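Practice problem: predict the structure.
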Amino acid sequence: MRPDSCVWLLFSSNILCYYKKMTDVENLEKVIRDVFGIEKSIRNKNNTNKCIAPLNRYPVNMFAFNFMNRLSRLNEKFKDSPQAISTICERVKNLGEAADSGWAGPYSELVALDFYTQFSEFFSVSYINLLNVCEHKKSIPALNGQKEVIDIDLCLHLKSGRIYTDVKSFNCVHQQILERIFESVEQFAEKEFGKSILIGTENLSSLDYVEVKRSLAGKTHEVEKILKDAVRGHKNYASYSSGSGLALNFKITWSSELSVVKDYSPFAMAQAYRYKMLDYGNKLVDSEYSVITMVKNPWFNAETVDFGNFNNIFYRSLSRRTFMELSKIDSKAADYSGAYRTDRIKVSDIPGNLAGIVFIDDNSIRSKFYKSLYSAYIYLNPNYANKAPLTIRSFEKYFRNGFEVQIKDFDDFKWDNY
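Answer:
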């Protein structure tokens, strides 16, 4: 039981009464009940994470205020679709079931759904969409051996056609892996030596996305052992290097303060993440436009720093690398992503089937106004192969209302395709 889970209340009659505060999960169940009128039960009542904890704090914070308003808007938008409301409630429930940063996925779906429905006078949004693989025999999922259905989160029903978009959380792979390692080592130091330590690593922004997945994800025990040995020796530094060349330098401090050097470059980060979109090939169809929507919140991705237009430069550069650089690579996609079970699919096939990328920065932590709640960056692929590529001229008219101020960049690379 958390220290703040019990409260004594003194009433005017001078009777002292004991009150047990709801856990974060119980509070989330109440949120679902209050907003949607639907009962959802989460098994582990004592679970918590960075998303649901702020919803159970008083006074109400900015994140909780924006979160509750988002749910109310979604309830109003989809009140005539019981299936959509049921799915939305299930995603809210998933937030309470998640450990660590596992809440990022369902949360990102809610953010994207709220963002797109702001423009509902121009197009309707359906959520969820199950497409029969047999009707998309030339799609990446079909070529990859996927059976039965292609599960895509959203469909934007425009007057000129349909755009399918799956939603992904733009989380930081190495940040997630290292945080779990650091937590384990810090607990070790507390248990073995009765001292608190802090661990950090420097210059992570240029770490190659593929190398991190290959060389770090499967070596967590090795990295943890190196750090624990350093702690046993009361060292302030430790290093790790993989056979493939991935190198990490760790700094350990035996105090309450830790200072590390972080050298951020949007162009270096775009190069490091250039193969990231390959992971989402199973969400691309052949006969309709397919777009990937990436959602970023600083609580599950502290890597990007929107200072000096950093995010805009990074997102644009990453999109250009995806649309242009990857379209020229004939290597097997399976060499860069574990999402593929066949050598038939090439790296260049992915951008050829990807009509665009939408990046949404969620500003819920700090925004006071609905119109500044999101910052969106829309990039369209001039090398899309299945149909005539989407262009600003054909697409931007669907985002013309009071919320268009949230769109910070919109480019089809018409004059930048080389």
